Structures are given as structure tokens and as C-alpha cells.
Amino acid sequence: MLTEERHQFIRDRLAAEGKVLAGELASRFGVSEDTVRRDLRELAKAGQLRRVYGGAVASAPFAASTISQRGSHAVEEKMRLARAAVGVLAAGQTLFIDGGTTNEAIARAIPRDIELTVATNSLGVASALADLPLVELIMLGGRYIRDLGTCVGGDTLAAVAQLGADLFFLGSCGLDASRGVTAFDSAEAEVKRAMARNSAGIVIAATNDKLATAAPYRVAAADAIRHLVVERTAPAAILADFERQGAEIHVA
Amino acid sequence: MLTEERHQFIRDRLAAEGKVLAGELASRFGVSEDTVRRDLRELAKAGQLRRVYGGAVASAPFAASTISQRGSHAVEEKMRLARAAVGVLAAGQTLFIDGGTTNEAIARAIPRDIELTVATNSLGVASALADLPLVELIMLGGRYIRDLGTCVGGDTLAAVAQLGADLFFLGSCGLDASRGVTAFDSAEAEVKRAMARNSAGIVIAATNDKLATAAPYRVAAADAIRHLVVERTAPAAILADFERQGAEIHVA
DNA sequence: TTTCTTTGTGCACATTCTTGCATGATATGC
DNA sequence: GCATATCATGCAAGAATGTGCACAAAGAAA
To answer: Are strands B50-52 and B55-57 parallel, antiparallel or unpaired?
Structure first.
């Protein structure tokens, strides 16, 4: 990876999120934090960002507008969840990743230097993974549903049926200890079920607003969840319910 | 391989990807890295690129952001081609669109108010179409090839086989009146052939640098081209050859 | 044809750039 | 104040680069 590319990525990220973290960039790029710090130093010298402890933020003129516009609380929280979620990955694994903004954040958080095989029906996830050199990306085709950002339908199901994965990153709509994982859409639920069936373990990263809610279509039982990634502020009682059913809880 | 050919390839690659790697070019051209560096030095002196450690990137004014979006100075020309190309569309049609920066430009040029069904194996095209409300988008899944930006392989072929289209927007690598349409990659060519087989007509939008060139793998004969969209400056003699074989010429 | 010149190419060597690690300094959170 | 995380600096190894030189191919001149 060219130095210039890292700089460009940092500029883009700053424009989009308003800030970057040194450690996160390092794992994303697959270089040491020293190198990232050198990059940040250079960019700071060129006035393209302002260094802060732990990373950097967009330089003054842009800071106000960009951060307030895009760096909403939810984005922030999802990135934190994403960083914790990628912690369960091991090199060489095969993954299913379905749609949703949280899963897209996870895809963006996957470091550059880990070798994975990923099958996804989400355009957003695929785009995020498209330039990771060590990720073998399999696009699960089908009818694209605009509201979901994913492909569903018979073709998608057929493609999923041909694959097997170690982990399935399930973008849940509702998550309840008794009712399990649920989705709003029938076709969407069907694809998720197929992915769950063909995976050894399910990983769910859920913001607080998903906890203890349910949608019409059942995707999986609560005891099928192997890893549950939640915010620091998630209600302990709810987490205990999931833990009792075998989920490993990861606090972001 | 002529020096000038290498220079042209480097310019093209830079326009398409925004960067080139010295080592990669050397193995691609079958010459030593020294020679590539000499090429890069010359092009840099002519202001056509900016050298960086490890290769070169598109020169300053377009020091762009994401891989897919930018096409350097050729972007203007491609947009013009794209606007002309969408002129052949009629409401209600079904299309195949494969990969390439020109096809991505075409996808972005499709107006919001036209109803279409589009099947594509290109992530870039799919992303461009994802938010067009009247476009029914079918993603053709498969193994994603980073260099091409498209999905290829058996799954892709199977998905194509189930569909039929009115028009196929073929992203050509080489285009020659006698040798027909050709591609650089075997798997890529296979998918293109399948799409051509299942379409009533082929549409090609080609910048001048594609005309009268050929790549190893044959995709379709020249007389299979129904619409050929070219720049205003395209050599008339070449166009006449295609016209004789039944192509309708559209000048952007 | 032979010879000379020009051009393009590859190789060897010295130089420069980049990167990761070690060390000590500084900032942050409790 | 202390433990921890983050940072700057110096250094060494490896990668990329520039330069000089030799060699081969193509064309011009004899």
C-alpha cells in the first residue's frame, strides 16, 4: 500500500467522520502505529488535519461543519461496536455478512492484513471490502432491495446454499432473549435463515435500541447466538438473559 | 512492446485506478523495473502523473478519493460518452451492464425517471444504480475480482444464463473491426460472452484509445455490435469499418 | 554488406526512502 | 500519584530509486 494511499484514506475518513484513531488506522492499513503517526505528522504539517491525543481531527475550518453533519452519535457508537466485533475474527475464517449499517461499519473496520473469505449480499459491505487485498470476496447476487441495501430472492438463497461459513455477522432488526432474532421483511428473513443454517456461529452487534425488541419474522433462536457485541450502556439484565443461553458478551 | 504503448497503458491505468505500482507494471509489461521507472520519470516530467515511492498516482488536480469515482482527465470524456450512450435506452427495457469505468459513467448517467431492469456484475455499476427508484436492479453474484471490479466465475455465468436482456452494455478492453471485441482476462471474457449470448443487442461506448486495439480473449464479433458510441474525434475510417458491419454510430 | 549512430533495455552499485522496534518522554484516567 | 496509553526520537534493515555502463536492435551512411 502506497504512502499516498494511506494519506488519501485518512483525508477521506476525516472528511466523512471528522476524526481518525491512530490504532484503528494502523490495523486497517496493516502497518505499525508508528507509521500511522508519521503519516498524521506529515498531514498535520501540511495543515490537512489537527493532531490530538489518540489520533487526529479535521483541521479547524472544516471541523465544525463536518463533525456536526456526519459524526452523529449513532455513527460513533456503531464504529465502537464494529471495532469490538472484529475482535472475534481469526485469520483464515470464512464469513457471511449480511446488510445493515452496523454490518457496514464492521466491514469498514476489518483490518487490511487479515486473510478472510467473505460472502455478502450487501452492496455496502461489498464496497467496503472491495479494496482489502487479503479478503476473498464473494458477492451473493439476486434481486436488489433498495430499502435493505441487500440482495434477496431465490438466486441469493441458492448462492448461500453452496457455501459454508465459520461465522455469520447477522444484522438484526429485533433482538429479544425469548423471541430470538427477528426481521421486518419476509424475503430478508429467509436469506438470514439460510446464512444462519450454513454457519458454525452467529455474531450480532446490536445498539441498545435493538435490544429487547422484536419484528414479525423469526430468523434464529436466541441460543444460536455465539457472540453478542453491545454498547457499554446496555442493560445488564438483558445481557444476562442472552448469556444464560450461551452467548459470549463483548462490551464495546 | 513499444515505449509509447507502455506510456499509454500507464495513462489509462492511472485514469481508471488513480495509481500504479512500479513492480506490478514491470511484470505486466515483461520489462525490468528500471524501464518502468524511466517511463514514470518521463510521464512525470510531462506532468501526466505524480511519482510516489512505490509507483505513481494521478497528478495533483485529481488527487482523488475513492477508487471507483474518479477517472482523472478522461472523466470528462467518459461522461460525454455516457450521456450519449443513455440515449439508446427506452423505458421498460432490460439491460446487462458489465464492468469498467465507462460503464460506471453510463450507469451514473441514467436518468432518475426511466423504468428499467438492470442486471450487472459490477459493484461500481450496482452502487451507481442502487438509489434509482425506478430501476429494478439484479446483482449478478460470484467471485469478486479486485482488478476488474466485477464478479466472475461459475455462479456469475449461471445467473446470467437465467436472464435475457434487450441490450448489453459491453465494457470493451479492445475493439477492432476485424478482430471484434476482446478482453484481457479469460474469466472476464467468459462472462461477457454469456451476456452477449443472452442479449438482443450490444452497445459499446469506447474512448479513442480503445479503437483499433485488441486483447487476447475474443468476446464478440464486430458485426454483433448494434450501437457504437464514440468520441467526436474518433477516426472516420475506423468508424466506417464498424458501420459497414451493421453498427449504428453515435457521436458523443 | 559493413560500419556507425541512435535508441532502448538490463544490470550493478551507491543512495535515498520507508518502516518497525527500542527507548525515554509525555499525556490521560482513576 | 500511579498505572496505562500515546507519542517523539534514534537506529537498523529492507525496499525503492538514481546513475553509470554495457549490450542489443534498428536505422543511416559508407
So the answer is: antiparallel
